[in-house]
Design brief:
- 2 copies of one chain form a homodimer.
- Chain A has a single domain, classed as Farnesyl Diphosphate Synthase.
- Chain A is built from 17 helices and 2 strands.
- Chain A has a two-stranded antiparallel sheet with strand order 1-2.
- The two termini of chain A are 13 Å apart.
- At the A-B interface, helix 5, helix 7 and helix 8 of A face helix 5, helix 7 and helix 8 of B.
């Protein structure tokens, strides 16, 4: 994106750092991670860390390693989530367990998670500051894993009485916590005071929630070429998205039954998926989700409205707009 | 065991601490972990931590939380290993993924791992000392996960040219590293100097290697009632144990083919498993493994021979003998 081209060299450093760490390890265990990380992705979390660091007057360099650790965590969750959700594709290529089997994929996720914790014990910071940063990471990581667990337990428990608030709390962990951490950690490393750190975390969390809702929307309205995941995959996986929650509250009994039936069956039939998408469209659930995401983007932007104007703040505001305009 | 009855109250505190930590969390995500941890197990790792702390003159109380963290890590690895190895039973009951499905079991392992790292950032120690302890944990955890990854990659890669040294290096990570950490961390918390800490780590690592070899032996010679895992499970899982490595080096071409055929097929047929066990017996591979384990136990005991005599040292020596005498 244009808006943050000024941090491109630092973003490259984040990627190079991740690669060099992995390439230094045993190929038998870490070999499949290097090409996985090279698949790319939006790198939105390290971008947020770098910009947040800059927005509070810090040096981008200082945020490179903390940002790399967060991006490694994100990739760890993708690997395990794809196993849990039985997802077929990731970034346009087979999910890791499709390519290497569940055992190796699962273990490589554990290896990545372990490696990033080791990095977190070795960052060159004063010990007291390092421990404060670690606690920030541990708390956010826990919210991410717990959020994923809540979503899985809804699916396994056959729960369809999920409320909008429960959905928002779940994505508040699964997706928003890590974007909040990306901003908060960048600000912390950049020397921000408590108030600025909290404002950036709130920006990141609202942005993250909007991001997830938009992701759910793209999952039913996108094209594989751009989105690079299977369209309707969330439906096959039985996900209780905001659109599903909304639709269940609007649809009549027969339609509710059809919707719950397809979600429970984990069907991959195009006919079933199209039926569900049709119901979500018919009841205005897609539109509702888009509006909810837009409102969260507004909230994100207001969180940092009082920050002094500079190119980092400008970029953060542009990213907020991008999150709901994106088609990939 | 008689030899460490003096630390029983502290061992109960370790168990209570683990339970109370888990019970404070969301039942949807952590609910299945409490009964899993209550299944028990030998608790050998916390025992080693408590005794090592005592052996260097420390207070047992100080080692309770560090010991609980290690036992939590151990349980995390069991959960993920059982998924990776497609194991059916754990401690006499269905493996977690057999009871709750792969997604919930996998996520609960991640939740446990995340929770213990959060504990590790919040231990009440001076920050510099805490970071030193964390690095010790991170390095050992990495060896465990890497060891498991190496074993998986042998199986996936169809490798049968594993040497005894490669096998020993693999279990040096998979099993020995965590027992070494249990001792080293206990000693560190107990205020040991570098030399005593290193000696206890070496004791723990030799003990751990002996423990793994004995575990492999019990897997083919034990009874389900005592061992509480499926007998011959390692054969179905295609594990390259020391016995298999030895047998492949002794058997003729037809027997080698039969052995490799069964291991590659992941057969659960009793006939296939009995054939392999027969070959291991015939070529003296079980006896060879027992001797190797006994020699490692001798090495473990020598590592702490110069420690001053006290009941903690006596217990550590008795545990070393127990490791190869146990039938469960």
């Amino acid at each position: 994106m244009e808006s943050y081209s000024h941090i491109t060299p630092y973003l490259r450093s984040v990627e190079q750092l991740m690669e060099s760490r992995l390439e230094a390890e045993d190929k038998m265990v870490y070999g499949l991670l290097v090409p996985f990380l090279r698949r790319g992705g939006k790198r939105i979390r390290p971008v947020l860390s770098l910009l947040s660091c800059g927005a509070v007057g810090g040096q981008y360099e200082a945020a490179i390693e903390p940002a790399a650790i967060i991006e490694m965590f994100h990739n760890f969750t993708l690997i395990h989530d794809d196993i849990e959700d039985d997802s077929q594709f990731r970034r346009g290529e087979p999910a890791l367990q499709m390519a290497y089997g569940v055992p190796m994929a699962l273990n490589s996720g554990d290896a990545l998670y372990t490696l990033l914790w080791r990095e977190l014990t070795k960052l060159k910071l004063r010990p007291a500051k390092l421990v404060a940063l670690q606690t920030m990471y541990a708390d956010a990581f826990k919210r991410v894993v717990d959020g994923q667990g809540v979503e899985l337990s809804w699916i396994r428990g056959g729960r369809f009485d999920v409320s909008e608030d429960e959905y928002l709390a779940m994505i508040g962990g699964k997706t928003a916590a890590l974007m909040g951490l990306s901003c908060e950690a960048g600000a912390f490393i950049g020397g921000a005071g408590k108030r600025a750190g909290k404002a950036l975390r709130q920006y990141g969390e609202s942005l993250g929630a909007a991001f997830q809702i938009q992701d759910d929307v793209l999952n039913v309205t996108g094209s594989f070429e751009k989105y690079q995941k299977e369209i309707g995959g969330d439906i096959s996986e039985g996900k209780r998205t905001l659109m599903v929650v909304h639709c269940l509250s609007k649809a009549g009994e027969a339609e509710r039954k059809r919707l719950m039936g397809v979600l429970s069956s984990h069907s991959r039939k195009q006919e079933d998926i199209n039926d569900v998408i049709g119901l979500l469209q018919k009841h205005g659930s897609v539109e509702y989700a888009r509006k909810r995401a837009a409102s969260l983007v507004g909230k994100a932007k207001r969180s940092i409205a009082r920050f002094p104007d500079n190119k980092d703040k400008t970029a953060l505001l542009a990213i907020a707009d991008y999150v709901i305009k994106r088609d990939r």
